[in-house]
Design goal:
Length: 457
């Protein structure tokens, strides 16, 4: 046989090892086989609580299920790393010291519903059930709603005592019921003749401080695009942002409420994505993340374009698992953020050129209340946001792929979190904030304040 260059090709002869002179040829003992080394800097896909000792959680890795054999998904590369579960953690105050597994620590929404479980028929039904448990846990309790209303009431009374004609209106996630247990409150103060100069902002901050509402003197940020006052409530540790004479936030809240009423299931999907981004500090616009209003428009556009939802052939609330996976796949993998814009008011996509000043693609989302406002222009961390969506999709798809290919006893659906354990991790800071609000509500010291007499509980 000859090659294309005309030279004959012959296989290479194997080299024979020659015994060295002067040395006896004693065969060496075979080395004991050790466990394969793990790559440094990698993190396992699952976490498991090994034991608990007086308030400290010892976390150890214990992969669940068979290893992946699909070349398109890498169990380590596609794992969504959460810093909160990589080190020894402190238990939130008010929680018991005895745990039987990871569910009570990182998945309280699962352990709280343990006695209500019935064996589902399929994986998608199990995913729907876990999503419903998660949403039920994330939604505010009666005590949380009451303490937030009371905080708004305190601020309103203090401001009206100084400026009788002023009005205080909540907007944002509080007004739309899309806030997480550790979410903040956005307020707008309206008053004729107000201006956003530093003097008025300092007066408002002084009113909040002298009425002993804030834990420390409020922070005044007057050089921002929208001047804002930030403070933390003295009783509940809830963070509050106050702005002056801005109607856009209130209009946006009204629009989101109307949209959620028209699209059942939208609230659940927005809460999941919001939690997903908040866990990675990608939920604030001023740091390059995506705010709740823009996130709501993303979900609304998806529900407008989803064929079966548009034709009303499926019930969204009964198919949250399927819709969540399609939503994550669309915006995490398939959507061309730099070339395609979103217009929810007209229910369409359009050709756009959405890039930040460094040339990186960003979402182009037309504000339904103001066509000249692009809700995604300031989200310069769009690449990180899409990466989170992509990895979340791969995590859900990978777990379902493993179980479908290698099988799983139906009883395992009821023994641990099966599918949603990658996305539904609850940070200890969130549990501590909820426990603190519940403690303040039950102790009842807030009912002794001067503001309580005019508050309708």
């Amino acid at each position: 046989m000859s090659t294309s260059h005309g030279h004959s090709w012959q296989p290479k002869k194997a080299k024979m090892s020659r015994p060295s002179k002067g040395k006896s040829q004693v065969p060496k003992a075979p080395k004991p086989q050790s466990a394969p080394k793990r790559r440094r800097g990698r993190k396992s896909r699952f976490v498991e609580v090994e034991k608990v000792e007086r308030g400290s959680i010892i976390v150890d890795r214990a992969p669940r299920g068979a290893p992946r054999r699909d070349g398109n998904i890498d169990a380590e590369r596609d794992y969504i790393c959460l810093d909160d579960i990589n080190n020894d953690l402190e238990l939130p105050t008010g929680f018991p010291n005895t745990y039987n597994g990871p569910e009570k620590v990182f998945y309280p929404w699962w352990s709280n519903n343990r006695l209500k479980k019935t064996t589902p028929d399929c994986l998608l039904e199990a995913l729907n059930r876990e999503i419903n448990y998660f949403i039920h846990y994330i939604k505010p309790r009666h005590a949380e709603k009451t303490m937030r209303r009371y905080l708004i009431h305190k601020v309103s009374v203090a401001i009206r005592n100084a400026w009788p004609n002023a009005t205080v209106t909540p907007f944002g996630s509080y007004a739309t019921d899309l806030y997480l247990p550790d979410g903040d409150i956005d307020l707008v103060v309206k008053f004729n003749g107000f201006s956003n100069d530093r003097r008025v902002l300092d007066q408002l901050a002084d009113i909040i401080s002298t009425n002993h509402i804030s834990r420390s003197f409020p922070q005044v940020i007057s050089n921002a695009t929208v001047p804002v006052i930030k403070f933390t409530d003295r009783l509940t540790n809830i963070k509050v942002d106050v702005i002056l004479n801005a109607d856009s936030g209130v209009k946006s809240s009204h629009y989101v409420n109307d949209t959620m009423h028209a699209h059942p299931g939208m609230q659940e999907l927005v809460l999941i994505l919001k939690h997903l981004l908040a866990m990675r500090n990608l939920n604030e616009v001023f740091t390059g993340g995506m705010g709740g209003y823009a996130l709501s428009c993303l979900v609304e556009s998806f529900m407008q374009m989803q064929p079966k939802l548009a034709q009303r052939t499926i019930n969204a609330k009964e198919n949250l698992g399927t819709l969540l996976m399609e939503l994550l796949k669309l915006y995490g993998i398939n959507f061309n953020a730099g070339r395609v814009g979103i217009d929810v008011k007209r229910g369409r996509f359009f050709k756009a050129y959405g890039h930040d000043r460094f040339g990186n693609p960003v979402f182009t989302i037309t504000d339904p209340n103001d066509s000249n406002n692009d809700l995604g222009a300031k989200s310069f961390k769009t690449r990180e946001i899409r990466e989170v969506f992509k990895k979340a999709y791969f995590s859900l798809y990978g777990v379902m792929h493993d179980y479908l290919e290698f099988g799983m006893p139906s009883t395992q659906f009821n023994t641990s979190t099966v599918i949603f354990n990658h996305i539904g991790v609850i940070p200890l800071s969130m549990m501590e904030q909820r426990a603190n609000i519940m403690r303040v509500y039950r102790q009842g010291d807030w009912r002794k304040e001067k503001y309580y007499s005019s508050f309708c509980e």
